[in-house]
Design a protein that fits this description.
The structure is a single chain. This protein is mostly beta strands. It folds into 3 domains: 5-71, no CATH class; 82-180, Protein-arginine deiminase, N-terminal domain (Immunoglobulin-like), CATH 2.60.40; 182-228, no CATH class. It has strands at 5-10, 15-19, 22-23, 30-31, 38-42, 50-57, 67-71, 82-83, 85-90, 94-96, 102-103, 109-116, 119-123, 126-127, 133-135, 142-146, 155-165, 168-169, 173-180, 183-185, 199-202, 217-220, 225-227. The strands form 7 sheets. Strands 9, 12, 15, 17, 18 and 19 form a 6-stranded mixed beta sheet that branches. Strands 4-1-6-7 form a 4-stranded antiparallel beta sheet, with no helix packed on it. It is elongated, with a radius of gyration of 28 Å.
Length: 228
């Protein structure tokens, strides 16, 4: 018996399937002639690595097994490129780089070439693997986690990324992240915090200079002093 209808059984992740301008719902039956007018709206550069499922049927109510259709769309033929960037993160902190890393429209995949310094990269909840290539549509979040010691100052971590597409590679780009540190100390078990860039911290701890073992001031040239 002839095929007379079709239905979508699984939607693509990075695209919308439409018919007459409206979204196609799952398992809605359509006449086979309407298949020719179905369109695909791609969200970004997430193709040709996406697909959807569909079934074909007849008037007896018989349906085929699910077929898979791959969505193919070519990226720009210019050289893939990532813009180098210099970023900052607090000690012991993390930063989502998804909005900080800028790649051109010809880049549809990125290879993590190396990570040097105190920190690591997490792609969608899993620690990034050095040498692994990730498609840009997979970057729901891209988190840098600093592992720099609290006693350090301005530790630099360099993440080297290689932009690519189906035609070839671009040039390595460095994302340089500086972890701003601070100095921790204990003075007579007092709990207070003072921060400054330059200058002298004097008589801000409530100390009595006449009592042995205390001091009326702490001098610092540059950096941050945190007293706990």
């Amino acid at each position: 018996m002839a095929i007379t209808k079709f239905k979508i059984t699984r939607k693509p992740v990075r695209a919308d399937l439409k018919l007459a301008g409206g979204l196609l719902p799952l398992n809605q039956e359509y006449h086979i002639s309407q298949q020719a007018t179905m369109t695909v709206d791609v969200f970004d550069r997430g193709v040709p690595y996406d697909n959807f499922g569909f079934k074909l049927g007849n008037d007896n109510g018989d349906w085929s097994p699910e077929y898979q259709c791959t969505i193919n769309a070519l990226v720009s033929v210019s050289t893939p490129e990532i813009t180098p960037n210099n970023l900052f993160v607090a000690t012991g902190g993390q930063r989502n780089l998804a909005g900080d890393i800028v790649w051109n429209t010809s880049t549809d995949r990125i290879k993590v070439v190396s990570i040097s310094g105190d920190g690591f990269l997490v792609v969608n909840g899993s620690r990034a693997i050095i040498g692994q290539t990730y498609f840009v549509y997979e970057f729901i979040n891209l988190i840098f986690v600093s592992t720099a010691s609290i006693e350090t100052q301005n530790v630099v971590t360099t993440i080297t990324l290689l932009p690519s597409n189906d035609s070839g590679d671009g040039v390595n780009a460095d994302i340089v992240i500086t972890t701003t540190g601070n100095l921790r100390a204990v003075i007579n078990d007092l709990e207070t915090t003072d921060e400054l860039v330059t200058g002298t911290l004097t008589n801000r701890l409530g100390l009595n200079p006449s009592i042995s073992g205390q001091t009326s001031g702490v001098s610092i040239v540059i950096g941050t002093l945190t007293v706990v």
